Protein: Uroporphyrinogen decarboxylase
Amino acid sequence: MSTTLQNDLLIKAAFSQQTERPPVWMMRQAGRFMKEYWDIKNKYSFLEMCKTPEIAADVTMLPVDLLGIDAAILFSDILVTAEAMGGDLSFEQGVGPRFSNPVRSVKDAEALSTNCLDKLQYVADAIKVIQQRLDSRIPLIGFAGAPFTILSYLVEGGSSKDFKLTKLMLNNQPELAHMILQKIADVTVEYLNMQIAAGVNAIQLFDSWALALSWNDYRDFSHYYNKQIIAKLNRKDIPVISFCKGSSVFAPMMIEAQPDVVSIDWNADLKNIKQSLPQGIAVQGNLDPFVLYADKPVIKKKIIELFERMRGENGFIFNLGHGIMPDIPFDNVKYAIEVVKEFSY
Ligand code: CP3
Structure:
């Protein structure tokens, strides 16, 4: 499918082919920093938006139409898989995601369903509507949460600062953690293959909270499952991007799972990371999202600095080290994208 795209910069860069400039998209590019997002959000709940294909498509298209990015990302959430498995999920304003039935015992884990793809059909339907709207202009990125990050939400019952209960489970009840992680991994493989069948052009696996783990725990409780998932995808010509906070430490292990791209957080020097990885592995990143609060000349300077550093490297996708914060000025995001698009090698 990627061969027919009018703008295939992202696909080319993901496969480490030469591009005239780095492609740009931003995590959380369809979100609360946009007035147009609120115009929709004020009428529906977040989950209603995700579950109504026409609305999910409207929101996916906002940054395409208003920002001119080089890739769209499906409007959904990483936690929809956990909901389909039986998690009672809600999103409360100012609180974030909540599961009213946390998974903390063998009985809770046994109750999680792995036969739940039909509950996620709305995602396939949304992808089809989005692809009609995109009309082959730019690629569409599909995504899922990685098992460890999903496990943390299920165990904690929501967001957590320290992942205390999750780590307690990994330490005291590793078999229980593995049982839940395997169930999530099985559902995630089916879910991502459903997204591929529905027409996404790239996949990103979000393991946002892997940075909480030690090297060995990352290997056993996160990497082991991510590797299984990536190996079981019907990839064809679809690149896989592996994201985690902590990637500047874990990148050498992440690449053993054979993604095409590793998304790097802002602690690392991107060029050093790139050169430490085997040929053919692309990098994505890694501007500190807080730069987008700054004055425009500062935004420009930091982006140009990153690009000068990456000059001559194929396989570079410009992104932030993590998502856009809701109170970042829209104008600054738009300006950053203009700066990227003016740049040419
Ligand atoms: O990037 C995009 O624009 C695509 C849509 C997208 C959302 N969530 C929409 C969303 C994607 C790719 C995600 C992934 C996601 N969701 C992650 C991984 C990425 C990351 O940030 O590390 C995680 C950890 C979640 C879980 C989640 N969803 C949290 C913690 C929250 C609440 C806190 C917050 O940051 O808003 C959400 C809600 C959420 N997901 C919103 C959006 C637009 C806000 C919903 C609202 O309008 O209230």
